Structure formats: C-alpha cells, structure tokens
UniProtKB/TrEMBL annotation:
One of its GO terms (cellular component) is SMN complex. This is Serine-threonine kinase receptor-associated protein. Residues 315-335 are annotated as: Disordered. Keywords: mRNA processing, mRNA splicing, Repeat, WD repeat.
C-alpha cells in the first residue's frame, strides 16, 4: 500500500501517546462517560482476542479480559464502567466485571458476533453479527431464551442501545441503519445509504448518530433519523467521532495512515496527522473532549491531544522535555 502526504498536513510537531500490548489489528475503541470517581476509561477490541481496559486520560493499562477464543470485533463499557460487553468471532458475546476481569455471562450464538451493547441500566445486552439478526439477553435471567428480531439482509456491523429513546439501532453491510422499539422489537424506522455502513456510534450527548459509509460521513438527528449533515471525503472512511462540544470531529480511513480533524459546521478539513503504520479502523473522543484515541491495523492505540501542548494526563510540561513518543505498554498480570 502506498500513500502520499496530504497537502494540508499540520506542520506542527504532534506527539501522540502509543498504547502497546495488542498483537493484532485494533478494530474498536470506546471511552466510558466520566464516572463517579471523576475519571474515565478506555476499552479496546482486537483481533488478538484479548480486549483491554485502560485509564482514559493516560492510556495506562489496567487489565486484559481473557476468555475469548477468536477475534474480538467490538468492546463497550456500561455507563458506570463497572461492566463491559464484547462481541467475538468465537460465536459469543461476553459480559465482564471490570473490577475483577471475571466473565459474568457468556451468550452463545450461531455465527460470528460483530457488535454488542449494554442497556443504560446495565441489565440487558443487544448483539448482532453474521446471523443477520438481533438478540436481546436479560442479564437477570441469563438462562431464558433471547428476544430476536430479523430484517437485515447481510452482516450487522454495529448495534447501539439508545436508552433515552427506548430504541436499538443496527447497521451493516446491507447499507441500512434500522431502528427497533426495545419493548416490541418491531422495526420503527430506517435510513439508507449508498454503501455498506462501516461504523455507527451515538454522540456523547445522544443528539447525533454518527456513521460512515463509503467516502461519506453522516450525522443523523437521533430523534428523527434524518440527515443533519453529511461530509464527503476523498477516501474510504472507517470511523468517525464527534467532539463533545460539536465543533469538530475526527475521522480515520480504511486504506491510508492519516488521522484527520474536521470543522463540524463547515465540514472543512482542519488538521492531518500521521502516527500509525497501518490503516485506522476506529476513532473515539474522550468524554471531556481533551483527547481522542485511534486504533489501527498496526496493533497499536494512539492517544492524541485536542489542544497539543496543553498539560493533561501524561502530557505534563511537554515543551520542556525532549520530543519523543511515549510508549504505554500493556503488561500481562503476574501472580
């Protein structure tokens, strides 16, 4: 693969933190909201089958969830960050205790699970994948049959539990975002794109559904499911994340190495950075908007400052230090 440097690459020296530890491509990242202890956390999904939990502001490794026997395609935290749910190629969705790292529940499917999410109160999960169907599992009644909904014509790549509106969002290769009523599991709305949908997330305040398909970034009104704004790019977009203040967004590409920052109002590209050695599969802004994380084919997570040079997390008095890349290694626990 060859790439050329974009003409408007930011000339300033931007030094991201590099979070090592994974051994294969990092395919999904999610920051938690700010929790009761005043901090937040970052969870990563990787094809190595070992999702990891990190301290959000610093990227410091906290622990690795061990138990999957295949690639993990999705990893998400509950609102209070006490639970995590992962979706895997081993045909399971697993729910974890983030304090102990223990598996609380493991739900078997008939095919690869590509995405899963927790309800706002952390008592249920929704999952979707290559079965082309959605399943809801009740964690209080884990042995009961799952509720199921069908309608997608191909692999489901992303699912979201929108507790504020009591709906579930699903999207994937059939070029549609579908909206499902949580109580009846009936489809109540849909949005169609011209290309398979590669990512879908809710903005931090739940106002927008952010999505990528082909070379287009979509921002849908989460109440009406109509396009609020779309931004066309010159590359295949893999993932997008909207800053909490809705003034900018970050995007990654599936076939180049550049991290791009855009103005939300105008859609103009503001900043372009290179740090990864492989295509960028996933991007996510922190809940306070101070940093954003990128995950790549190169097996690393990188943390970038929204305001380079500001004292924050491990970026302490950076101007007075030698400019070199910080390496935050993931180390397996020892007894």
């Amino acid at each position: 693969m060859t790439t050329s440097q974009p003409p408007n690459t930011n000339p300033s020296r931007v030094i991201p933190l590099t979070c090592s530890g994974h051994t294969r491509p990092v395919v999904h990242l999610q920051f938690s909201p700010i929790t009761h202890d005043g901090t937040y956390y970052l969870i990563s999904a990787c094809k190595d089958g070992n999702p990891m939990l990190r301290d959000g502001p610093t990227g410091d490794w906290i622990g690795t969830f061990t138990g999957h026997k295949g690639a993990v395609w999705s990893a998400k935290l509950s609102k209070d960050a006490t639970k995590a749910v992962t979706a895997s190629a081993d045909f399971t969705a697993k729910v974890w205790d983030t304090y102990t790292g223990d598996i609380l529940h493991s739900f078997t499917h008939d095919h690869i699970v590509r995405s899963a999410d927790l309800s706002d109160d952390g008592t249920r999960i929704v999952s979707g994948g290559q079965e082309k169907k959605l399943r809801i599992f009740d964690l209080n009644k884990p042995d009961d049959p799952a509720s199921e909904a069908e309608g997608h014509e191909s692999t489901i790549k992303s699912v979201i539990w929108d507790g504020e509106r009591n709906v579930i969002l699903s999207a994937g290769d059939d070029k549609e975002i579908r909206v499902w009523d949580v109580r009846s599991f009936d489809q109540v709305n849909t949005f169609k794109t011209e290309h398979p949908i590669t990512s879908m997330e809710l903005s931090a305040n739940g106002k927008y559904i952010t999505s990528t398909a082909g070379k287009v970034v979509y921002f849908l009104d989460a109440s009406t499911y109509q396009v609020f704004k779309s931004v066309a790019t010159a590359y295949d977009v893999s993932s997008v994340s909207l800053h909490p203040d809705h003034k900018r967004f970050v995007a990654g590409g599936s076939n180049d190495l550049w991290v791009r920052i855009y103005d939300f109002e105008s859609g103009k590209e503001l900043e372009v950075y290179k740090g990864h050695h492989g295509p960028i599969h996933t991007v996510s802004y922190s809940p306070d908007g101070e940093i954003y994380a990128t995950g790549s084919e190169d097996g690393t997570i990188r943390l970038w400052q929204t305001t380079p040079g500001k004292s924050y997390g491990l970026w302490q008095n950076k101007a007075s230090k030698d400019e070199k890349e910080n390496d935050v290694n993931g180390i397996a626990p020892t007894e």
